[in-house]
Amino acid sequence: MLASAGPLPSGPAWVWEWKWDGQRGVCVVDGVSRVKLLSRNGNDISASFPEVAAALSDTTAGRSVTLDGELVALDSGGRPDFGLLQRRMHVARPSAALRRSTPVTYFVFDVLDVDGESVRMLPYTQRRALLEGLGVADGRRVQVPPNMAGIDGETLMGIAADNGIEGVVAKKAESVYRSGIRSPSWVKVPIRNTREGVICGWVPTGGLAGGTLAALLLGAYDEAGELVYIGRVGTGFTDRMRRELRSTLTERTRPDSALHGPVPRTDAVGVSWVTPELVATMVYREQSATGRLRHPAFKGIRSDIAPRDVVA
């Protein structure tokens, strides 16, 4: 179940959670403490986060449960850092050194099944009470962050901004859990706008062949199922990101554009078109009526999101 984007709701029907800047993950634990972590698109990512799987194996203590939450990397100040998480998201079997330098924590916010019985049709508040009673948190690699009621969203947004948190999620207290849909009963409100784009090409600095990667050309699928241009992003990269992206994209070169419709000539000087297989996530100021992003900045690659799930 995914949250819908929208304005801050108000009233006693809503309960609040923090919006964590990480990778969504569903955890399935069987009755003998075997743990499977699944990404948003259903891939088994257990081997990528062995410290989380080991902690959940211990804390579930032989019970079978299905949990929903966010995999998050924290910086030295305890703030979520998606850039740090990028070091782990694309590593199938991280070394002990990488796990020590960039540990990941699973922030659990919902429970879907307990001891073989689905609890998805229980109201959100009852599921939260069940979750808190399960004792799955170990205080380090698995945490159950608090939810909040009786406080207004504007106040929480201010607290989020002061503490480096991405935003808030409002959930209706009576909402049931409907797997695989984006529900209006959950509303996400980020401090800055974020969205994904399918990488369709890249341009080098100055449009010169052989130059450093300067920008990515991005698309999204419209209602007709066509991949349409939504803009280019040229900021937010570290030098290392530029090198690694260029190497990765060079392997996906194709002779022509996968985009339906024209791309502004000024955006595509020196472009190398690529097969639209990778999804980038950006922050941006606004999106125009024609669908173009304004002032976007690159955050990272989302291996947990399929290109076809990126819509205009």
What does this structure look like?
By secondary structure, the chain is of the alpha+beta class. It has two domains: 2-190, 2-Layer Sandwich (D-amino Acid Aminotransferase, Chain A, domain 1), CATH 3.30.470; 193-309, OB fold (Dihydrolipoamide Acetyltransferase, E2P) (Beta Barrel), CATH 2.40.50. It is 19% helix and 33% strand. The chain has six helices and 18 strands. Strands 3, 4, 5, 6, 7 and 8 form a six-stranded mixed sheet that branches. Strand 11 and strand 12 form a beta hairpin. The radius of gyration is 20 Å and the shape is globular. It starts with a strand and ends in an 11-residue tail after the last strand.
Give me the strand/helix succession.
Answer: EEEEHEHHEEHEHEEEEEHEEEEE
CATH architecture of the largest domain: 2-Layer Sandwich
Q: How large is the radius of gyration?
A: 20 Å
- Summed up, the domain count is 2
**The CATH class of the largest domain:** Alpha Beta
Mind describing the biggest β-sheet? Answer: 6 strands, mixed
The structure class reads alpha+beta
- Could you tell me the CATH topology label of the largest domain: D-amino Acid Aminotransferase, Chain A, domain 1
Shape: globular
Distance between the termini: 20 Å
Assembly annotation: single chain
Q: Helix proportion of residues, in percent?
A: 10-25%
The portion of residues forming beta strands comes to 25-35%
What's the number of helices? 6
Low-confidence stretches: none
Count of individual beta strands: 18
CATH superfamily of the largest domain: DNA ligase/mRNA capping enzyme
Summarize model confidence as the mean pLDDT. 93
